[in-house]
Design goal:
The protein folds into 2 domains: 97 residues, Cation efflux protein, cytoplasmic domain (Alpha-Beta Plaits, 2-Layer Sandwich), CATH 3.30.70; 43 residues, no CATH class. Helices cover 45% and strands 15% of the residues. The protein is built from 7 helices and 4 strands, in the order αβαββαβαααα.
């Protein structure tokens, strides 16, 4: 295919550049969202007059200013490097132009627990599950010394784990033993 130039021009709006940058930023590792630069930015976003977190200037080349929130516990410098790389790549791929200036402001750290808390149980269920912690049911679970002496008499790993009070480990060891017997 020939690389013949066709006369004419293509114009890309600031809003289109902003959306390209926004997509690249939000897909980047460690970025939890875009922040507002100031109170005016929050007001414009609330009124639907502008997008938050991305400022684009296309007068003399492409200049981008970003306001991010980063996940807590992630190296901020690494996130910023990854964002810069993603934005440069997205603009080069979409527009065929290089980014002239990029400024990244980290507006805050966002802490989100990795797993939701377990559902709340009624007080009676909590009491029944608590066992020896409450003092009433101290005989329900044998003490560690009792489990160790019961387990000492067994030679099979699954029986030892079961006697020690670890039923899940016993089941796993028993299934491993049956697989090993089938292979012989």
């Amino acid at each position: 295919m020939s690389q013949r130039r066709i006369p004419g021009s293509a114009r890309v709006t600031r809003r289109a550049v902003s959306e390209i940058v926004r997509a690249a930023v939000l897909e980047s590792y460690g970025v939890t969202g875009l922040a507002d630069a100031d109170l005016g930015g929050r007001l414009r976003r609330w009124l639907g007059l502008g997008s938050s977190g991305v400022r684009v200037d296309v007068r003399d080349g492409i200049a981008v200013e970003l306001f991010l929130t980063v996940a807590y516990g992630v190296p901020v410098a690494e996130v910023v490097r990854q964002v810069e790389s993603a934005v440069r790549y997205a603009l080069r791929r979409a527009l065929g132009r290089e980014l002239d200036a990029l400024v990244v402001h980290v507006g805050g750290l966002d802490y989100r627990p990795s797993a939701p808390p377990p559902p709340a149980q009624p007080a009676a269920a909590q009491r029944a599950d608590a066992g020896p912690l409450l003092g009433d049911d101290a005989a329900a679970v044998p003490a560690a010394e009792d489990r160790e002496t019961e387990a000492a008499g067994s030679t099979e790993p699954a029986e030892t784990a079961a006697a020690a009070g670890y039923p899940a480990a016993a089941a796993l060891l028993a299934s491993d033993a049956s697989v090993a017997e089938g292979m012989q």
